[in-house]
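Hey, can you fold this one?
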Amino acid sequence: MSNAHQKELKALGLNISYFRKKRGLSQSQLAEAVNISRTHMSRIETADGAVSLPVVFDICDALNVKPSQLFDFED
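Sure. Predicted structure:
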C-alpha cells in the first residue's frame, strides 16, 4: 500500500478504535457487526490495510457515529 495517505489512515484507525472502545465493543464484536474478519478490523485500526468507503459507512452504522466523526483528524 502506498504511504501517500498513511497519516490519514492511521488517524482514521485511531478514531474507529476510540469510538469502538467508547461503545464497549471488542474488535471481534465490531467486525461481526460489519461482516468482516477480526483480522481485517485490526488492520483497519492499525492502518496496516486499506478500507473501502462501504466498510467505513458500515462501521459508522455499527458505532452510531457520523462519517465526519471518523474523518475528524485533529493535528
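The chain has a mean pLDDT of 93. Let me know if you want another pass with a different chain boundary.
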